[in-house]
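Please check these two lines:
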Amino acid sequence: ANLTLSAKGLSITGFTAGNKAYDGTNTASITSNGSLSGLETGDTVTINSASASATFNNANVGSGKTVTASGYALSGAQAGNYTLSAQPTTTADITQAALTVTADAQSATYGDVLGTLTYSVTSGTLYGADTLSGALTTASGGAGTELTNANGFNVSGSPYTITQGTLANSNYAI
């Protein structure tokens, strides 16, 4: 009869990833590779992080989001006696990306119906295929409002400030 040994499973503890501002990707930065747990006394085994990377569970803004590592391996004289039980996980935050929009100057004639108020992104970046939903407005109404005194518009009160209204995307601080 023979005695057959199998490799002992080790885990990585203390793995951490950094928080980041939204950038349209789920890529995470590793801030600590952590350390091995379960190693037998006197054995020389280290974490090989040469191919390590980490990703958030999705690219969207959120607190305490799961970050999962991949690519970790074991190195050292006794590495063959061990296996890595699992790639480590942790949590980190993705915060809103700063975005500044500037309303385009508009002109209309008293009695007209206000058209869509347009804007330009003047600071920050809309990532990938991201868009903003909602619309700009004025204190007296937005697109589709008749420009009459009954609705709070008159020539003597002009110009009217155009504000953010409902323009939004949860991944951006506008």
